[in-house]
Design brief:
- By secondary structure, the protein is an alpha/beta fold.
- The chain has five helices and 18 strands.
- The strands form two sheets. Strands 2, 4, 6, 7, 9, 10, 12, 13, 15 and 16 form a ten-stranded parallel beta sheet that branches.
- The longest helix is centred in the N-terminal third of the chain and has 35 residues.
- It is flat.
């Protein structure tokens, strides 16, 4: 009878321990999700621009709220001011730089595609600049326009609102259709969702001290050269010592 009582008590203690463990785990995971997963209310608020750790901004650069600099992008305001509007997207390896005579200005909700190069120009609200396109100094692109892939907008060009420009040098082809604007908006929405994912990863990296900026390739090369030089000193024998040993071995052979 006493044995069954002990077994029953042990089973009760075990059940309680399991219940407490599961409760603690669920509470912990709930806190993790609340901290790192953005909710709809937060996504609607204006937040500071998110700059990927591998993106670079130099000089006088003003970034609007909810804007996003993708990995490898570059913004240079060392010659004059660069302004990037709210909810604008600068994608991989795209670059924006000002010149001494012309600051660079990007309106709200602009979409700069990978590899695009903007130099001292003005881009209107809601305009998309295509992949590897170039917009030179003094050029002004109107609102809700599209600069096509590989297009080159010459210096000082004036493009009205809602136009599609293509070619090298770029020329106005036609008006931008509503379907094209809707498609651009869909792409922008998808990329803004990716912005939330990048921010979540960044938060976790900061929490676990994983967000240290990696060494630049030049520093890595210099460090490797130093290590190789130290290794050579330790493992590679001196040539004079080798010659001396060969000479002694040769003389010993002749003795016999």
């Amino acid at each position: 009878m006493f044995r069954f009582f002990i077994i029953d008590r042990l089973q009760s203690i075990l059940d309680t321990a399991i219940f407490l463990h599961v409760t603690f785990y669920l509470s912990y995971m709930t806190r993790e999700l609340e901290e790192f997963l953005p909710n709809d209310e937060e996504s609607e608020k204006k937040e500071p621009a998110f700059v990927d750790p591998t993106a670079r901004k130099v000089g006088e650069v003003m970034l609007g709220s909810n804007s996003f600099l993708f990995p490898g992008s570059m913004v240079r305001g060392d010659k004059s001011k660069v302004e990037i509007g709210e909810e604008s997207i600068l994608m991989n390896k795209a670059s924006v730089e000002s010149t001494e005579e012309h600051p660079a200005t990007l309106g709200d909700k602009t979409f700069i595609s990978p590899g695009a190069d903007l130099r001292g120009c003005s881009i209107g609200r809601g305009t998309m600049v295509g992949i590897d396109a170039v917009v030179l100094k003094g050029a002004e692109i109107g609102k809700n326009s599209i600069v096509g892939t590989n297009a080159i907008v010459p210096a000082g060009a004036k493009i009205p609102d809602g136009k599609l420009v293509l070619g090298q040098p770029a020329e106005i082809i036609r008006d931008v259709s509503d379907e094209e604007l809707e498609k651009i908006q869909d792409i922008r929405s998808d990329l803004m969702e990716r912005r939330k994912e990048f921010k979540m990863i960044e938060k976790r990296a900061e929490r676990f001290n994983l967000n240290d900026t990696p060494k630049r390739p030049q520093k890595i090369l210099e460090e490797n050269k130093r290590k190789m030089a130290e290794t050579d000193k330790e493992t590679v024998p001196d040539l004079d010592d080798i010659r001396e040993k060969l000479k002694e071995e040769s003389e010993n052979k002749h003795l016999f």
